[in-house]
Amino acid sequence: MNDDMDDAESRLARIERLLESGERDLVPAWRRTTRGEPRWTVTAVILAAVALQLSLPHRLVLLHPVWALPALELVLLAGLIAANPRRVEPRTPWLRYLGLGLAGVISLANGWSAVRLVGDLVSGRGGADAVPLLLTGGVIWVTNVIVFALWYWEWDRGGPMARVRGQHEYADFLFVQMQSPEVAPPDWEPAFPDYLYLSFTNATAFSPTDVMPLSRWAKMLMMLQSSVSLVTVVLVVARAVNILK
User: Fold this and answer.
1) Measured between alpha carbons, how far is residue 239 from residues 114, 117, 127 in Å?
2) Residue 201 phi/psi, 5° resolution?
3) What digits encode the pLDDT tens for the residues 4-18?
């Protein structure tokens, strides 16, 4: 009798393992519960954005002293790192709002700098030297790429913490690996570098490349980024060429 029970339990355990293996094979990683992505990639990019903001001319800074907003950004980032030092894991709801607040502060600071720069260029106060103008425009443009990468990362399928749980069935951005899973490892899912690439290509091509926006908010956000990037590049380059002449 005991041998029969042991045999039945063994078969049941084998069936459960097969079912779990089949679920992993049938359900892609981006649709099921997985581990959070490493924290260091997004941390490094945010630190780069803070450094870029500190390099801007004082006239383009929203708050004075010039270190005020970068200091606030570092405090918010420190809170996120303290709560999730190694991986972006869903722990408490306030982490979601802390991340959105950090993205909002960086966006506000860079948006103000972009508006001030465009205003100076339109009114003819962009300066008489082309090199500093191009450097300033480049700093704002690169920071803008980081800003929108953060927003794409924070909002796609509810954000990084919701993606860990696999809560949202429908994606806001369609990556190539989602369409053709055979070209990627079975545990592939989008991480921050993928959204940074999306932001960079949208800022340079002024349109989607290999990542397609699906939801309306994703389309509107990409349209806004393309518009900001186009205006910044056109005005800065036009002014620089005029100065060189």
Assistant:
1) 15, 11, 9
2) -65, -35
3) 555 666 666 665 554
| Whole-angstrom distance, CA of residue 208 vs CA of residue 202 | 6
pTM of the model: 0.85
Give the span between the Cα atoms of 116 and 98, in whole angstroms: 27
Peptide bond into 160 cis (omega under 30): no
Per-residue pLDDT of 182-213, as tens digits, reads 887 888 889 999 999 999 999 998 888 889 99
Cα dihedral value 11, 17, 22, 25, nearest 10 = -150
- Token pair listed for 161: 């913490």
Q: Are 74 and 98 in contact (CB under 8 A)?
A: no
What is the C-alpha separation between 82 and 76, in angstroms, rounded? 10
Q: pLDDT tens, 15-59?
A: 555 445 544 456 777 777 788 889 999 999 999 999 999 999 988
Give Cα separations from 233 to 91, 114, 227 (angstroms). 41, 11, 10
- Other beta carbons less than 10 A from residue 211's beta carbon: 21
**Nearest CA to 156 among 222, 230, 63?**
222
Question: 238: closest CA among 144, 124, 141, 140?
Answer: 124
| C-alpha to C-alpha distance for 99 and 80, rounded to whole angstroms | 7
- Cα–Cα distances (Å) from 8 to 3, 13, 29, 32, 95, in that order, read 9, 9, 32, 30, 46
Tell me the per-residue pLDDT of 101-135, one tens digit each, with 9 for 90 and over: 999 999 999 999 999 888 887 777 766 677 888 88
Instruction: Report the SS3 class of residue 189.
Output: coil
